[in-house]
Structure formats: C-alpha cells, structure tokens
Design goal:
- The protein is of the alpha/beta class.
- It has one domain: P-loop containing nucleotide triphosphate hydrolases (Rossmann fold).
- It has helices at 37-44, 85-95, 101-110, 126-138, 156-171, 210-235; strands at residues 2-8, 11-17, 26-30, 52-54, 70-73, 144-148, 175-179, 192-197, 200-206.
- A 6-stranded mixed sheet has the order 5-6-7-3-8-9, with helices on both faces.
- Strand 6 (144-148), helix 5 and strand 7 form a beta-alpha-beta unit.
- Helix 2 (85-95) crosses helix 3 and helix 3 (101-110) crosses helix 4.
Length: 237
C-alpha cells in the first residue's frame, strides 16, 4: 500500500497509509472504533477502492483478478439462513469451481462443528454462525485470509480453537490479517500488530506489546470476575 487515502464524503477514513505485508505471517490490526481498521481491510481485499494511493496484492494492482485466492470474513456472515452449513459450503465452494463434499465437511469440522448437523443456519446461535462464516472463508484454501472481528459472540473455548486453526494456516503459508478488539486471544501467536488512530498508521510492532494488551485484558478480567460473582451468588442457598 502506498499513500492510501479513503474518503466517505467529507470524512477521511484513511489518511495516507503505507505498509507492506510478507507472506506466511499473521497480522493484527488494532485501534478504537472508527480508526479505519475495517476500511483498510476492505481496501486490501478489493472490496473498496481507495480515494487516492495504490494497492498491490499478490503482485497485481488489479485486485479482482486475484480475488479468488482470498478468503474474507466480515461483519455480515454471508450465509443463506434457509440452508444447512454443509449446503452453504457446497454452494460457496462451487463458486470457486470446487465440487468436493469431503472438503466442505472437513472445513466444518475444522471450526468445531458437526457437518452432519442438518439444522438451517438461521437456527444457529451467533457463535455458531461466526464459525460457519470462517469455514466459508477458508473452504477454498486461500493464500490470503482477511478476518474482521472473527471472535465476536464466540465463547472462549471456540475462540481458542479458531486461533489454533489460524496458526496452522499461517504455518502452512497463508497470510492472515485480523481486525479485532480481543487482542489477548492473538497475543501468543501474532507476528506483528498495526495500530490505527483516526485513519493514520501510528504504530507497527513485533507481536502485540503488553501496553496494547492492557485495556483488552482489563475488560476480559472484569467480565470474568462478574461472571464468577454471579455464579457464586447463584450457588448460595
């Protein structure tokens, strides 16, 4: 990315971002709400054109030409509620020219769900929908994976399982960019973090430094303490 600027009307969502990303690494994008993280991810994935600047992905400035090599998981799950998880994955994998039921079943198992579950996705919990959305994004074995708040509404055990999957994909050569407010989940495995503030790239560091984890850890600790207190109160006669 070179001097990338993005305007929505008079609002500048990105203000001159320049960055390079190496293959086979896991990058975490951090920042407050409105910092420009999702906009940056969408521009790299070719879902949004910058107002100014250049972006080259996999050696091409024509991002749509290489988009079949991406996997993208945004805020919307992009699933058909009236279909089962397996039916959804069979449909989306067919768009990539893949007609392999076993691969779809394996992707569902990989995110910790049962491929034989015939309930419609519309009947799934939010956490289950997030996991199936991740399965949809990886079923075609992408070289690049873009994830925008993948742990939203996901319980801790499932989030850790998803993190292990990301590590496995990274170690197999997939480049992964993750936008998250739950940085503590990725602290043990992140290769680099980029911090955005008001549309500017203000820091880029190896791993995720403790000073950036502190607010997230504090929030998680407070939530855990509240849950524990509620549990203790309910246990009392």
């Amino acid at each position: 990315m070179r001097d990338v600027v993005c305007h929505f009307g008079r609002f500048a969502a990105l203000r001159g971002i320049s960055a390079e990303f190496a293959p086979g690494r896991l990058y975490v994008l951090l920042g407050e709400n409105g910092a420009g993280k999702s906009t940056l991810l969408r521009i790299i994935a070719g879902l949004l054109a910058p107002s100014r600047g250049t972006v080259s992905v996999l050696g091409s400035q024509n991002i749509r030409a290489v988009a079949t090599r991406f996997g993208y998981m945004g805020h919307a799950p992009l699933l058909y509620d009236e279909m089962s998880a397996l039916e959804n994955l069979q449909y989306f994998s067919a768009l990539y020219g893949i007609n392999d039921r076993a691969r779809c079943e394996d992707a569902i198992r990989t995110v910790g769900l049962e491929p034989a579950l015939e309930r419609r996705v519309g009947q799934y919990s939010q956490g289950m929908r997030q996991r199936i959305s991740l399965a949809r994004a990886i079923v075609h074995l992408p070289e690049l994976l873009f994830l925008d708040e993948p742990f939203s509404n996901v319980d801790l055990r499932s989030a850790k399982q998803m993190t292990s999957l990301l590590v496995k994909m990274r170690d197999q050569g997939t480049t992964i960019l993750v936008v998250t407010h739950q940085a503590a989940l990725l602290e043990p495995v992140a290769d680099e973090c980029l911090v955005l503030d008001a549309g500017r790239l203000v820091a880029r560091e190896k791993g995720i430094p403790a000073r950036l984890l502190t607010p997230y850890l504090a929030e998680e600790h407070a939530a855990l303490r509240t849950s524990t207190l509620h549990g203790a109160a309910e246990a009392q006669p």
